[in-house]
Amino acid sequence: MDVKSLILENEKLIYKLAHYFSDYVSIEDLYQAGCIGVIKASRNYQDDKKTKFSTYAYSYILGEMKALVRETKPLKVSKETTSLRHRIERTKTLLTQKLMHEPITKELSAFLEMPEAQIEEILNINTYISSIDQSYGDTNMLMHEIISSPNIDTDTLIMLKETIETLEEPERSIMIGRYYEDLTQCEVAENLGLKQTFVSRREQKVLKKIREWV
Question: For the residues of 144-209, what is the DSSP string, one character each?
Answer without folding.
Answer: HHH---TT--HHHHHHHHHHTTTPPTTHHHHHHHHHTS---HHHHHHHHT--HHHHHHHHHHHHHH
